Amino acid sequence: MQKRLDSCIQFLKRMRGDQSNELESGQQRALEVEIRKLKRLKKQQKLTREEVYRAVREVAEIVSKILK
Question: Which residues, 6 or more positions from 15, have their beta carbon under 8 angstroms from its beta carbon?
Fold first, then answer.
């Protein structure tokens, strides 16, 4: 599970830092909030697969709204 969370975190960091994506500062801050959520989740012990998938799904929904 940690690998999957790390992968999501790295993806969001690349999105936030990519100069060609033209994200506004509010959108970049929103991405940072989602990154922090995933990092907090990663620090939890004994995560179930369902908890990880639910969290990643929620983050994906928010990111898709940011990019619209």
Answer: 21, 23, 31, 63
Residue with tokens 């799904």: 57
Confirm if 39 and 31 have CB atoms less than 8 A apart: no
Note the pLDDT of residue 8: 86
Listed as ranges, residues in the chain with pLDDT below 70 are: 19-21
Q: Which is it for the CA torsion 33, 13, 22, 57, positive or negative?
A: negative
Q: What b/e string do you get for 9-43 counting C-beta neighbours within 10 Å, with b at 16 or more?
A: beebeebbeeeeeebeeebeebbeebbebbeebbe
Task: Say what the pLDDT of residue 19 is.
Answer: 67
CA dihedral 57, 13, 17, 28 (to 10 degrees): 50
